[in-house]
Design brief:
The complex is a heterodimer of chains A (432) and B (160).
Chain A: H1 9-12, E1 13-14, E2 17-19, H2 21-24, H3 26-37, E3 42-46, E4 55-61, E5 64-70, E6 75-79, E7 94-96, E8 100-101, E9 108-109, E10 115-117, E11 141-145, E12 148-152, H4 160-164, H5 168-176, E13 183-185, E14 190-194, H6 198-205, H7 211-214, H8 216-223, H9 234-241, H10 245-248, E15 252-255, E16 261-264, H11 274-288, H12 290-298, E17 301-306, E18 310-313, E19 318-326, E20 329-339, H13 344-358, H14 365-379, E21 386-388, E22 397-398, E23 404-407, H15 412-426
Antiparallel strand pairs in A: 1-2, 2-21, 3-12, 4-5, 4-7, 5-6, 8-9, 9-10, 11-12, 13-20, 14-20, 15-16, 15-23, 16-17, 17-18, 18-19, 19-20, 22-23
Helix pairs in contact in A: 8-9, 11-12
Chain B: H1 5-21, H2 25-30, E1 32-41, E2 54-59, H3 60-71, E3 83-97, E4 102-115, E5 118-133, E6 136-146
Parallel strand pairs in B: 1-6
Antiparallel strand pairs in B: 1-2, 3-4, 4-5, 5-6
The chains are: A alpha+beta (432), B alpha+beta (160).
Chain lengths: 432, 160
């Protein structure tokens, strides 16, 4: 097969395979930042992280350093850069910014970024604090969807709900699992890093075929435990992770436009005491009604992928977010939520699940991270040059409205992710 | 608390470090009581393991699962095994509960780990709850507060 050119995205991505360069070429990484991450809706944080006026968190998205700050009743997302000489205004990961003051020359801003006073007044000719250019710049677009703060660094393109399409239901399902329809971030964020390309993580999340190979060790270690069965333990996760290959082979996959997808019908469930479950179900029925409560709780999606950044597991109250650092380095942050109005046990169990699966000391996660490193090292070899996503190709069923379904070990989600990747990359740079 | 107790306490902490470095993980677990827990919090001032995320919050059963995983032939993370040195210093018996026969012991911990061409150093403060029962001193609780607990971390395979 002839070698594709670096800017020939249609040739780097073919129907059932991609060229290894998409994982290994630093030039591809730079283009991805501009053409994918600068134009996608990205998760910036949750409003419960900034409950009071002036509360802020700082974060990095698509190479930009940002402040998520509580203004009056609303939340603003600002670039963390003083309009005067460029210093970061907020240094810490979180805090309260009242006064919202640059540490360099003491310029003071309102919590929406508007300049209130500066050290320069009087001596600088045309200078006036009313000049909008001297405000802390807000991101081009942000949307607070039921408490989830999303940012888009490009000022044109589809809005959040249009861009996420059917994946909005994944966010709704997480929120609707609360009898009050609301969640709060549980303190602490699991952060880990792996020496591999960001796309490897999305592919692995969608991959029902790897657990019997990658997770045999944690599964066998887990099933040897003797634990009361009401406790949601790492053991349950691990044995679920290694449900007989036949079980994983029955998973249902659905892929949508723009690279989104979900993997469903994987039988890993949160386990709580009978009393807690009864109390929870009663509360759910009271607030949502019988039918809607059933629908919410029967959602069997194991993983939702909101391309290119978010992996959401509503049943485990978890949102995992990736941040590409370099072509061969990716950081991951894992947020876990408390369902308002649910029994306390649901919070404890979600914490246990997160510690067992997403901590950097997790016996499950470590085998995944090691595998990503191995893939990245293997891809450095030019042998063959192509990475195959052929499983299930030809068996995908399109519904005619942009959704495609597959089953079992189908590599449909990866094909869908690369179709979106090709479209983003071929569309050229954003207007910004 | 008797004059020689400090030596017993130190000996137990050094033994624990030695067993981890020699990968005698079953023997490491055997140092703990059946109601023990092993905690590596995510946040320095963290007081609640159930309402906040942790790096590790294991009871004895989960510790045994971790050890089983560490020894498993299909473990990928340790296919190339880590070599470690656990340094324990600044050991101080903070208090002794006569009724419970429990010592609260603080120490400084540094773990150097080498794996796949990379050396990583973890540093933190440690708190052990040690309980004397049936003529034996055992670990009833161990808490490790890493100075970089909130950093972006790579895999932590060998217990700290």
């Amino acid at each position: 097969m002839k070698q594709p050119a670096i800017d020939d995205f249609g040739d780097l991505v073919r129907k059932d395979r991609v060229h290894r360069r998409v994982y290994t070429d630093p030039a591809v990484f730079e283009l991805e930042q501009q053409r994918i991450f600068n134009r996608s809706w990205l998760f910036a944080g949750h409003e419960s992280q900034v409950p009071r006026r002036g509360d802020f968190i700082t974060t990095q998205l698509a190479g930009q350093t940002l402040i998520v700050i509580r203004h009056e009743d609303d939340i603003k997302v600002l670039f963390n850069r003083c309009p005067h000489r460029g210093a970061k205004i907020c240094e810490t990961e979180s805090g309260n910014a009242r006064p919202f003051r640059c540490p360099y020359h003491g310029w003071v801003f309102d919590t929406d970024g508007r300049l209130i006073s500066s050290s320069l007044h009087g001596d600088y000719g045309d200078f006036t604090v009313a000049d909008a250019d001297l405000n802390v710049r807000a991101v081009p677009r942000m949307t607070n969807y039921r408490g989830f703060v999303f940012v888009n660094l490009c000022d044109d393109g589809p809005g959040l709900e249009q861009a996420l399409g059917p994946m909005m239901s994944a966010i709704d399902n997480l929120l609707d699992r609360s009898p009050e329809g609301a969640v709060e971030l549980i303190p602490g964020i699991h952060r880990h890093v792996f020496p591999g390309n960001w796309k490897l993580l999305l592919e692995n999340i969608s991959d029902a075929a790897h657990p019997p190979f990658v997770h045999a060790s944690s599964n066998e270690a887990g099933t040897k435990g003797r634990l009361e069965d009401y406790r949601m333990r790492a053991e349950d996760v691990m044995s679920g992770n290694n449900q007989a290959a036949g079980m994983l082979g029955q998973s249902k996959l659905k892929a949508f436009q723009h690279g989104h997808s979900y993997l469903a019908a994987i039988p890993i469930r949160i386990k709580v005491s009978r009393e807690a479950e009864q109390e929870y179900r009663t509360a759910m029925v009271q607030s949502h009604g019988v039918d809607k409560a059933e629908t919410i709780l029967n959602d069997s999606r194991h993983f939702n992928i909101i391309y290119p950044q978010i992996m959401l597991q509503s049943v485990f109250q978890t949102v995992k977010v990736l941040r590409p650092v370099a072509i061969d380095r990716t950081e991951v942050s894992v947020y876990v939520f408390r369902l308002k109005g649910a029994p306390q046990e649901y919070e404890r169990v979600a914490v246990q699940f997160a510690n067992a699966t997403n901590s950097s000391a997790s016996v499950i996660l470590q085998d995944d991270l090691t595998t990503f490193a191995n893939i990245q090292e293997g891809l450095a070899a030019c042998a063959g040059d192509w990475v195959l996503f052929a499983n299930g190709y030809g068996n995908d069923i399109a519904d005619g409205h942009g959704a495609v379904t597959g089953e079992g070990f189908s590599e449909l989600p990866m094909r869908s992710q690369f179709a979106a990747w090709r479209d983003y990359m071929a569309a050229g740079p954003s207007g910004n | 608390m008797a004059a020689g107790d400090k030596h017993l306490v130190e000996a137990l902490l050094y033994t624990e470090a030695r067993l981890l470095d020699r990968k005698q993980f079953d023997d490491w677990c055997a140092l703990f009581t059946e109601d023990a827990y092993y905690w590596v919090p995510l946040r320095p001032e963290q007081s609640q393991p159930d309402k906040e995320l942790s790096i590790i919050y294991d009871d004895i059963d989960m510790m045994r699962v971790r050890v089983h995983w560490l020894k498993h032939p299909k473990n990928h993370a340790q296919a190339i095994p880590s070599r470690t040195v656990h340094y324990v210093s600044n050991v101080l018996v903070e208090s002794f509960d006569d009724e419970r026969q429990e010592y609260r012991v603080s120490s400084a911990l540094q773990v150097a780990e080498y794996r796949k061409d990379i050396q990583t150093v973890y540093s933190g403060s440690c708190e052990h709850l040690l309980r004397a029962a049936d003529g034996e001193l055992k670990i009833a609780a161990k808490r490790v507060d890493l100075i970089n607990s909130q950093a972006v971390l790579g895999p932590i395979s060998v217990p700290l």
